[in-house]
Structures are given as C-alpha cells and as structure tokens.
C-alpha cells in the first residue's frame, strides 16, 4: 500500500507571517483491517505448517472451486486469509471455509474436515484433560494412553460407536460430530479420564445407543431400521463381546437353518396356539410370515441369496445338510485363521477348482456320484417319514 499522503496547510501565528508547514495526514486503513465482516483469518500452528504445505493444492481447490472464495497464505504472520470473490457472495460460505480451515489446523484430516462444508449439523468441541481431572506427570501420560489405547484401538472404537472424529493434541481433546454424538463421545472420554476401564466404557456406549434407538418414535424406512439394528449387533459383538463378526454370521446362519427345520417338522405350514371360540385352530406363526420376512430381507437389505427360504425352511433337506456342513467347516477355518488368510485360502480353492474341474468331473465325480445319490435318497426318506402335526403330504 502507498505511503500516507502529506497535506499542506497554512498555520496562522500571531505577530508573524503566515507559515506553510507540512502535516502528516491521518493513516488510511491497511489491508489487514479489511476484515469488515468479509475477511476471515485462521492462524497456522507450527506443527501444521508441513501438513498445510503438503495439502495446499487440495485446500485451494476446495475453497476456490466449490465455495467460490479467494484464499491466500501470509507467510510472515503464519495466517491463512479467506475472502469472497465478489461483494454479493454468500457470507455463510465464508464461515464454512473458516470452520473447514480451523478443523484442519486442529489436526483433523481433510476428508473429515470437509464434512463441515457438506453437512449443517456438524460441530467441533474442544476441552482439556485437566478440566475434568487435575493430572500431572506420569498420571497425565497414562490417562492419554488410556484414551488412545494400543495402536489407537480405544479411540477408534469410540469414534466408530459414536460416529465422531477425535483428535488428541497432548492434553487437549477435539471432537467433531453432531450434538448427540459429541455428547456421547465426551462422556466416554471423561469416563476414561476418571479411571474407568475401556470395557465398562464400551458397555455404557452400547446401552446409550440402545436407549437412543428406543427413543426413535417412528421409522418410516424399514430398511434403515434393519441396517441400524444390524450395525448395533455388529458393534456389540466386535467391541463388547470381542467376537469376530464372521463367526457371528456363521452361527446365525446355522441357528436359522436348524430352527427353520424344526418349525417345518413340527408344524408343516403353520404353528398353532390352541383353539379359538369356534373350536378351530388359532394360528400365530405362519410360514407366509417367515417367507415375507425373508423376502423383505432379501429385497431390502440385499444380503441373502435367492434360495435362502429353501435352505432355512428345509424344503430341500439335502441343501440344508450341505449348507450346515459347509458352514460348520467354514466356521472352524474362521476360528483358526485370520480374515486375510481365509481370503487367500478361498482364492486358492477357487483357482484350484478352475484348474482341476475337468479332472474332477471325468474321474472323481463319476465314482462318487452313486454314493452321493444313495445318501441323498436316505436323507429324503428319513425326512419324509418324520411325523408332522396337521400335515399328510410329503415335502
């Protein structure tokens, strides 16, 4: 900016001639004072200079192309300045840009900070560990380690269960998320600061999620409710019971097949709950209801195969027995091997099947098929001779 201009004025001095002197004019506003509502500054901490330099291109693209704003970095004052590109620009975008930059300076990743731009109900809350409990020295270090967990497992578990993002900056904690999510995460972190064990914190989080689910008055989309319940089951088994989710799915499938066969063997088409006023059987569980539930799960959640109803209800006992044996063997492998080893083992089996398929059909299958047909016939005969209530025809 140009130097302040000097004004020449006449000073009248009593008893003397008029003398012309130079007087400095008032200082004009500098560019730094251009922040009359439409200039925002975000200071850059020393530990975020390198991440800012590495991600500067992405930040500029987000601010300039998506928010239609202007951005620059003042290297002297270590400040990032953002202002609108025109006078009629929306100032709410300016506030979003400031929140986006502030979140990045606090330590959040760019993809997490972009949620402040895309969503309206996302906030950031910060507090110190000493605000909850005064800790110093090794006690403070142990508290930070208790919050983080081994390799960050506790922090990641709280983030996943509360749908938040957490940054541990020495003795200061920053939480990003919705209002209720921040409340749950803050309560869990405060419990860890006060000395509670992570397992107890997981149980409290699960109970909070359960109460939050019960507080929902009405869910119009049944698919969203099914996915929400499935997600809660996954969190409970993975983080509280410490059971591998794959084992849970295998056990659920085995129980469904066994219960489906029991229902079909006992009742045939329906289960009966006594007699009504007219002396007729009163039905309270029909096979149509089970079929409707399975059809809804198949169409809505899209996680079951097309023949799930046949397998679960034991309409084909051979398929049911085969699936039970296959799931049991698969469960043993899932218990002994890790998920990556299991994946490579499945790929190896698939490649081996492609390689030896012709040899199998020409030699092994021709010898094993008679014995397989005999076992299949025995299973069908045994299944057909099992007595059923109110059913005379064979399945």
From TrEMBL:
It is found in: Nucleus, Nucleolus. GO terms for cellular component: nucleolus. Residues 121-194 form the K Homology domain. The keyword Transmembrane applies. Pfam families: KH_PNO1_2nd (PF22891). GO terms for molecular function: RNA binding. It comes from the Eukaryota. The chain crosses the membrane at residues 224-241, 248-266, 325-351. Keywords: Membrane, Nucleus, RNA-binding, Transmembrane, Transmembrane helix. Gene3D superfamilies: K Homology domain, type 1. Belongs to the PNO1 family. PANTHER family: RIBONUCLEASE Y, RNA-BINDING PROTEIN PNO1. This is Pre-rRNA-processing factor PNO1. It comes from Babesia ovis.
């Amino acid at each position: 900016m140009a130097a302040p201009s000097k004004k020449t004025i006449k000073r009248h001095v009593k008893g003397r001639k008029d003398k012309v002197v130079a007087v400095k004019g008032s200082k004009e506003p500098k560019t730094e004072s251009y922040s009359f509502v439409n200039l925002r500054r975000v200071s850059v901490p020393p530990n975020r200079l390198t991440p800012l330099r590495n991600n500067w291109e992405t930040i500029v693209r987000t601010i300039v192309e998506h928010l239609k704003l202007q951005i620059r970095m003042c290297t002297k004052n270590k400040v990032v300045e953002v202002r609108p590109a025109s006078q009629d620009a929306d100032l709410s975008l300016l506030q979003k840009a400031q929140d986006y930059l502030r979140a990045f300076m606090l330590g959040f990743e760019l993809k997490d900070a972009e949620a402040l731009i895309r969503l309206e109900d996302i906030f950031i809350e910060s507090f110190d560990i000493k605000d909850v409990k005064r800790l110093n020295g090794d006690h403070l270090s142990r508290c930070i380690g208790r919050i983080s967990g081994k390799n960050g497992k506790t922090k990641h578990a709280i983030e996943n269960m509360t749908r938040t993002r957490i940054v541990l900056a020495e003795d200061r904690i920053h939480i990003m998320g919705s209002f209720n999510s921040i409340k749950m995460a803050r309560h869990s972190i405060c419990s860890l600061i006060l000395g509670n064990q992570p397992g107890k914190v997981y149980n409290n989080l699960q109970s909070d999620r359960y109460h939050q689910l019960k507080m929902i008055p009405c869910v119009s989309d049944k698919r969203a409710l099914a996915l929400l319940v499935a997600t809660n089951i996954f969190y409970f088994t993975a983080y509280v019971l410490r059971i591998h989710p794959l084992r849970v799915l295998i056990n659920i499938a085995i129980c469904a097949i066994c219960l489906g066969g029991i229902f079909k063997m006992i009742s045939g088409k329906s289960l009966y709950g006594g007699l009504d006023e007219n002396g007729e059987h009163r039905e309270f569980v029909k096979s149509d209801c089970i079929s409707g539930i399975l059809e809804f799960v198949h169409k809505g959640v899209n996680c079951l195969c097309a023949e799930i109803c046949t397998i679960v209800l034991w309409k084909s006992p051979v398929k049911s027995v085969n699936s039970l044996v296959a799931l049991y063997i698969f469960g043993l492998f899932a218990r002994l091997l890790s998920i990556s080893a299991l994946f490579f083992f499945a790929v190896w089996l698939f490649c081996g099947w492609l390689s030896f398929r012709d040899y199998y059909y020409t030699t092994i299958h021709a010898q094993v098929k008679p014995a397989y047909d005999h076992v299949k016939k025995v299973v069908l005969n045994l299944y057909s001779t099992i007595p059923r209530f109110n059913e005379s025809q064979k399945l």
